[in-house]
Amino acid sequence: CACEQLCFDWLFIHLVMDLIRVLFLCCVVAFLPVGCNTSKLEHKTYFVRKDAAVVEVSSNHDYYTLMVHSFGQQQNTWLEPDQSWTSIEAIQRTFVTVDLSFSFPFYGTKTREIHIAAGGFLSSTPRGLEVSVESYYIAPLLADFMGAANTTANIFYLDMGDSFVVQWKDVVLHSNQTTLPFSFQATLYRSGKIVFVYNELPLSPGDIMETDHPVEVGIADSYSREVQIDGIQTFVRYDYHSIDVPKSKVDPFSLVILDPLPTCGTYTSCADCLNHNTVFDCGWCEAIGRCSDGVDRFRHEYILGNCHQERLLPGTDTCSDTGNQLYTYEFDWPSASFSDDCWYWLSVRIDYNVTDFENRMVTPDTTNSQQSIVTFSLALLPSQSDDVFSLLASSQPLFCNGDTFQVSNVQRSSSSGGISTQSIIVIVSGCILVAILVVIVGTLYYGYTHPITSLGQWLILHRRCKGFCSSTEEGNGEHIEMGNNRSESYSV
């Protein structure tokens, strides 16, 4: 009857509307900004105890040059915090983790986060490992410090785009060996250079007691490996190198500079690795895509990849095809111009040089004259392309002309004819939903055109508009007997 046709039409329309809503939600999710971070800084406890699963490894190579200068008076290297700095409380034996806006190379391994400890040191401990005073530290003055009783902010830090400054201001010793405050700072540079500056030192570092907390000035690094001990798999830390600054040389207004030397990790391609200019036995490992001598933080991956037996060495091997593709990146910029200064800070953010960029272009946004679209290309491996995309799409603002701006709508495509990641998500989601829609419509159509089938009978019995579609008129009917004691009447 016409009423039953109306019921099927009504049901079909509602199903289509539901599918449209689902498709809309999928598209919205696909275009949500990537990398949003709303977490607050959390104080965690660092460890002072000696870890039993530690092996001392001797390294004869030089990783840094060390210079110590004593001026006798304050120099312009000391920075005074202002409202642009972030302050945190110096709670005894705790640390907070801060993201860097640039990649900081420590012993040749780049990191994007740093741990700031109340105990006068920074830590580059990898994720998943406990932060301790034993290694991975950058220590202008590692000791058992805490905040003074009359203040709640004794540590200040500032990210300046290509350098990161941390200042311990008016911290005191927990032991009360002296109640006078200490003030000193550490600066990390994008180049890997580390600078310590001292302002107030009521005690010489060599005179601070080490009763239950070590006292260190310098840096140290390690690597960890999973090994089997007594039938149990455990991670063992190997301390392979440290630099101890002579404590007697550190006094108020002194300056300590640690300048990095080239290491295997400095080289990011096979060709550069096999032409390295270092004192290390560098080789290129295809399995992990790294230049290494096997003594760095990627030692575990180095062994798993069998790099110690299958790496390419200078003078004896040649590099195979790099497999690089030309990836093009595009993003919306909330300004009509994108200056050379902006290009520099963009290169810092994604950790490539401006000279590596190809096809640089800034075009006006046709929908908004106050905005522009920035485009550039890089020849990369697929894994490197993923890293660049992640850094570019992060929620951190981009420095430019003395201000900060937010990058949005980041897109990526490759020279092999690929399309952007978000477009792929939308296309796949759309194809899935269209397939579901076709199946549902086909099923409804079959049941609607074959009412005496089991499907047709089920749709009639479970239609939502039973009461609305009930006919009040009686007409001449032709009674048709059906199998399984079922029957249906049709008006003729």
Describe the structure.
This protein is α+β, with helices and mostly antiparallel strands and about 500 residues long. It has 9 helices and 26 strands. The strands form 6 sheets. The protein has an 8-stranded mixed β-sheet with strand order 1-5-6-7-8-14-15-2. Strands 3, 4, 9, 10, 11, 12, 13 and 16 form an 8-stranded antiparallel β-sheet that branches. It has a 4-stranded antiparallel β-sheet with strand order 20-21-19-24. The longest helix has 29 residues, at about 1-30. The chain is globular and about 95 Å long. It starts with a helix and ends with a strand. Mean pLDDT is about 80; it is low at about 25-40 and about 470-490.
Spatial sequence of strands, sheet with the most strands: 1-5-6-7-8-14-15-2
Poorly predicted regions: 26-39, 470-492
What is the count of β-strands? 26
Instruction: Round the mean pLDDT to the nearest integer and report it.
Output: 80
Helical stretch tally: 9
Give the overall shape, derived from the CA principal axes. globular
Helix share bin: 10-25%
User: What fraction of the residues are assigned to beta strands by DSSP?
Assistant: 35-45%
What does the main sheet amount to?
Answer: 8 strands, mixed
| Structural class by helix and strand composition | alpha+beta
Oligomer: single chain
- Termini separation comes to 10 Å
Rounded to the nearest angstrom, the radius of gyration is: 33 Å
Question: What structural keywords apply?
Answer:
eight-stranded mixed β-sheet, 492 residues, 36% strand, single chain, disordered C terminus, alpha+beta, eight-stranded antiparallel β-sheet, globular
